[in-house]
Amino acid sequence: MKPVIALVGRPNVGKSTLFNKLTQTRDAIVADYAGLTRDRHYGSGKHGKQEFIAIDTGGFEPKAESGIYKEMAKQTRQAVAESDVVIFMVDARDGLSAQDHDIAQYLRKLGKPVLLAANKAEGMKASAQLADFYELGLGQVHPISAAHGQGVGDLLDMALEPLNLPDIEDTLEEKPDVIKLAVAGRPNAGKSTLINTWLGEERLVAFDLPGTTRDAISVEFERKGQKYEIIDTAGLRKKGKVFEAIEKFSVVKTLQAIEDANVVVLLIDATQGVTDQDAHIAGFILEAGRAVVVAVNKWDAIDDYQREILRRSIEMRLVFLKFADIHYISAKKRQGLGPLWTSINKAYTSAYCKMSTPKLTRLIQEAVQFQAPKRHGMYRPKLRYAHQGGTNPPVVVVHGNSLEGVTDAYKRYLDGRIRKAFDLKGTPLRVEMKTSHNPYSSKSKA
């Protein structure tokens, strides 16, 4: 699973700036609990080959007893609890404050790895002002500039090194025998009800696999000879106790469950429509490259007019998941669950589809004959051959000349032809261009 880094500090020390630098985007997954005035923001980052999840928090006042600051402190404590390592940010320009001492005191009690980052420290490495931060008792002070990226790489080295995480390598994964199936969605969308219905229908014994409080809990069962492992982001009770109950929603649990799954069921509450949270989770599924099936639950609870509005909303807001099957179900009444299983199995098969090089090459050449890519400057991109570069999701690597000029629209055109040829449904497909080296380029410059 991806490690989790929480950014903590008092207001205006640059946490959001560092978050944007780490995630290389201004888009974030937000925990949209009702009534909270300042939410935690989640995003994916990558340092070298190592991927991680970053959490941005609001200004932290550990001693706040009421109002907005108490709610913000509650959010920060949750982020720290979900994290593997904490980056405590202070302002090198403003210097040490009483609030910094309060935060440091709270973090020291937890015994969790903490890195102290002095932000806005451009040109201040030898400054005596930085020495004051050693009073916080958190060890070495790391001077950084989140706005300019100075020192951020070294800080990430320090954050990720103690976790002893293996580098991610591009490999052609073998199709596993047990399908890891994650059920993701907002609180109260019906995740527990759906899983309860599945288990009850098949009369299977569920058992909890050991894990930490931050990990999603897995349940194993078998259906029509196929073994599954359901990764439940809501949490399950022990054997013998049917898990209804209040769902404990953790964004980190959801993101890590998605990463660990082969197929994800994105569960949408028909009575609530497609929310920002649903769209953010869908975006993360796509970014993670996981096969996905969309299930709209509580379909029986809305009328025909609401159904039509919801269909249009799904088409607009989840347009980037148009490759996925959509099912309208009622977990409570056990309606529509058979076709849902068919789509889950189809998405799983598609995610691990093996594509032969001769067939891919022939397919690419036929696509070019039917519609050639547009010229890029003086040259027209030449697509010569293709091979499969990975599974889960399938990756097709196209080789040729001047391929940097291939447009996104043309990649989508190739995507459609590849999907049709190999009958891919429910899985993202990545088409990568690799320009061949010109052996005469160095000679022409001589």
What is the topological layout?
Blueprint: E1 4-8, H1 15-23, E2 29-30, E3 41-47, E4 50-56, H2 67-82, E5 85-91, H3 98-110, E6 114-119, H4 128-131, E7 141-143, H5 152-160, E8 179-185, H6 191-202, E9 217-223, E10 226-232, H7 251-260, E11 263-269, H8 276-288, E12 291-297, H9 304-317, E13 326-328, H10 337-351, H11 357-370, E14 382-390, E15 395-401, H12 408-422, E16 430-435, H13 441-445
Parallel strand pairs: 1-4, 1-5, 5-6, 6-7, 8-10, 8-11, 11-12, 12-13, 15-16
Antiparallel strand pairs: 2-3, 3-4, 9-10, 14-15
GO molecular function, one term: GTP binding
Keywords: GTP-binding, Nucleotide-binding, Repeat, Ribosome biogenesis
Organism: Darwinula stevensoni
Description:
InterPro entries: AAA+_ATPase (IPR003593), G_ENGA (IPR031166), GTP-bd (IPR006073), GTPase_Der (IPR016484), KH_dom-like (IPR032859), KH_dom-like_a/b (IPR015946), P-loop_NTPase (IPR027417), Small_GTP-bd (IPR005225). Residues 3-167, 179-352 form the EngA-type G domain. It is a single chain. By secondary structure, the protein is of the alpha/beta class. It folds into three domains: 4-163, Rossmann fold; 179-351, P-loop containing nucleotide triphosphate hydrolases (Rossmann fold), CATH 3.40.50.300; 357-445, GMP Synthetase, Chain A, domain 3 (2-Layer Sandwich). Helices cover 33% and strands 22% of the residues. It is built from 13 helices and 16 strands. The chain has helices spanning 15-23, 67-82, 98-110, 128-131, 152-160, 191-202, 251-260, 276-288, 304-317, 337-351, 357-370, 408-422, 441-445, and strands at residues 4-8, 29-30, 41-47, 50-56, 85-91, 114-119, 141-143, 179-185, 217-223, 226-232, 263-269, 291-297, 326-328, 382-390, 395-401, 430-435. It has a seven-stranded mixed sheet, with helices on both faces. Strands 9-10-8-11-12-13 form a six-stranded mixed sheet, sandwiched between helices. A three-stranded mixed sheet has the order 14-15-16. A hairpin with a 4-residue loop joins strand 14 (382-390) and strand 15. Residues 28-37, 166-171, 201-215, 235-249 and 439-446 have low confidence and may be disordered.
